[in-house]
Amino acid sequence: MSTTQRPTDSAADTLAIDAGFVAGLLRDFIADGIRKVGFERVVVGLSGGVDSSLVTSLAVSSIGAANVVALFMPYRTSDPQSAIDAYAVCDSLGVAAETIDITAQVDEYFERFPDADRTRRGNKMARERMSILYDQSMAQRALVLGTSNKTELLLGYGTLFGDTASALNPIGDLYKTQVFELARALDLPQSVLTKPPSADLWAGQSDEEELGIRYAVIDQILHLLVDQRRSRSEVIAHGFTAADVDWVDTRVRGSQYKRRPPVIAKLSSRTIDREFRYPRDWGR
Amino acid sequence: MVLERSRTGVRPDQEVVPGATGADPLEAPAPEPDPAGSIVVALAQCYPRLGDVATNLSTHLTVIRDAAAQNAGLVVFPELSMTGYFLKDQVPDVAMRLDSAEIVALRDASGAANIDVVVGFILESDSHRFYNASMYLSAGEVVHVHRKVYLPTYGLFDEQRYVAAGNRFRAFDAPLGGHTRRPWRAGILICEDLWHPSAAALLARQGVDLFICPSASPGSGVLQGEALGTARSYDVMTRTYAQLFTGYVAYCNRTGFEDGVGFWGGSRVVGPLGTVLGALPGAAETVLFHTLERSELRRARVTYPLLRDERNDVNDAETDRLRRRHPRD
Asked: Which of A32, A68, B163, B226 is the most exposed place for a label (fewest CB within 10 A)?
């Protein structure tokens, strides 16, 4: 699979955003979302990566640092640099970060399943973090902000009911390269902007090595397929390899279940989300 | 809600920050009613609360009073201003009839404050059909009701699932609060109606001076260098219709969020030469005031007698021919 594909200029142009406008809209989105449920605070799982750092920054500029609970939840194999970066983000934003180490609760479980592979362990870590975020949500009356970007969501590159779980996701309609663009515009710490994206399940892990294609290429293919509704042959005509286009397309189709609520067996005449349709903001 | 007074020449991108100018807009000198044909229009760019008719009614009554205090002859509220937009199965729950208590309260307010009002709501018919409607109130009476004809059911829209479509575009005489010697011809186009130029053309053929365009347009399509694709589309449409039909366009879009979808505001008045005369720069809850001049309509139609030259006979003949040849189209 090619990792040296040069994106075409015309496709790159379409991913460009007006960072100031987008940041303003997302700040309003956060403030509106918490007001509607009667909360005043948010809680964010801060990893030291660009996605959660950006979300924390947007939240601080939206509702103030005092209303943002930033939780750093490392595992014993997390890269030590992550803690440095997470605290650098919090220092720059004036947020008091709290660390909750998840090693004990994860390791205790896997003592029963010592042969569990990295995927199972990674999923477990993501779900432990989710359970902590939702507990703190209740304890501190703080809404859980999501940190999954559009690239991850479309590829299914996340853990169901784990890192993809949240109440409000400000960056779920921004591709990874757009997340970087916005993070640069908001002056996040340099180390956050320059280090390779990683799920940080172990030191040295790299998203792009795992995925096998650079985000710059994935995002342009996704943008053409999803946003521009281009056909496979049209995307290839833009200069992308058939292998890369097919890989992206297969990932998107194969992960649809992660983007939908659980399937309900239809029995009654008014089944939830089929005939029973109300907005999420119903009564808010 | 902030009150913003606009005059010809106000830059559309001018920031509206409450109190930033040091002058309370409420204290700005109010124009006197002009028998020669000036009319102050207020565009109430508000944030309707989804399904909360009582709160929305309260907001409407406050804005109506404030706008009247500014000598406005007409205040326009956005599409579905009384109910919010993404109602889904709430449509029957929030539907109103013309004799519903909330509508009566709005009619009474227009009469008491001597100001005409355009308000958006779900209208329930005698046969229990539900319409996305906007009505024009004056002196305590319902002057006109427009049922949205074009119901978008694509992309993020699903209107045809929940409401019935209107089937007419009718112009009417708008008293404008009695602030002018004679009424202006007006017509209402609700949001998606604007995307069909035949709708505006039908109103223009009926002599419309003022296109009243309530809207609940969601922001979509983040672009480099300019805010949103939808905002650009409405900029093109409102300026085009104003210029080609040599009339005023009063476009009132809502603001706020529903299920994460942000409504981009950008309410505006476009003059009969296609110039944006006043516009709100973003999605703040603000009332935009602008003075419309009968003399501007005259000047535009002297300069560009497009309505005089319109070949309705050719249009009718060609339409008849097409209808005979392609009856299903």
From this structure: B226
- Chain A residues with CB under 8 Å of B256 CB are 32
A49: tokens are: 């990566």
* A279 close to B (CB below 8 A): yes
Q: What is the mean pLDDT of residues A185-200?
A: 92
Domain count, chain A: 1
Mean pLDDT by 10 residues, chain B (329 residues): 57 36 43 69 98 98 97 98 98 97 98 97 98 97 98 96 98 93 95 98 97 94 71 95 98 97 96 97 93 96 97 96 83
pLDDT tens digits, one per residue of A83-115: 999 999 999 999 989 999 999 999 999 999 999
Burial classification of residue A95, based on how many CB atoms lie within 10 Å of its CB (0-12 exposed, 13-18 middle, 19 or more buried): buried
Q: How many CB pairs under 8 A join A and B?
A: 53
Instruction: Tell me the three state secondary structure of residue A58.
Output: helix
CATH number for A162? 3.40.50.620
Residue A271 resides in a domain: no
Domain ranges of chain B: 2-7+35-324
User: Which chain A residues are Cβ-neighbours of B283 within 8 angstroms?
Assistant: 28
The average confidence (pLDDT) of chain B is: 90
Q: Give A32's contacts in chain B (Cβ within 8 Å).
A: 256-257
- Write down the CATH number for the domain with range B2-7+35-324: 3.60.110.10
Within 13 Å, how many C-alpha atoms sit on residue A38's CB side? 3
A276 to chain B: nearest residue by CA? B89
pTM: 0.90
In a domain, A86, yes or no: yes
Of A281, A258, A71, which is closest to residue A165 (Cα–Cα)?
A: A258
- Residue B175's CB is within 10 A of a number of other CB atoms, namely 20
B93 CB near a chain A CB, below 8 Å?
no
Whether B257 and A33 lie within 8 Å, measured CB to CB: yes
User: Which tokens sit at A23?
Assistant: 């940041």
Domain span holding position A46: 9-259
Structural domain contains residue A177: yes
Domain assignment of residue A215, yes or no = yes
Query: CB of A274 within 8 Å of any CB in chain B?
Result: no
* A147 burial level (CB within 10 Å; 0-12, 13-18, 19+): buried
Most B CBs within 10 Å: which of A28, A168, A175, A181, as the mutation test of the B interface? A28
Count CB neighbours of B183 within 10 A.
16
Task: Establish whether this prediction's ipTM goes over 0.95.
Answer: no
| Cross-chain residue pair A278–B257, CB shorter than 8 Å | no
> Which residues of chain A have a CB within 8 Å of the CB of B257?
28-29, 32-33, 281
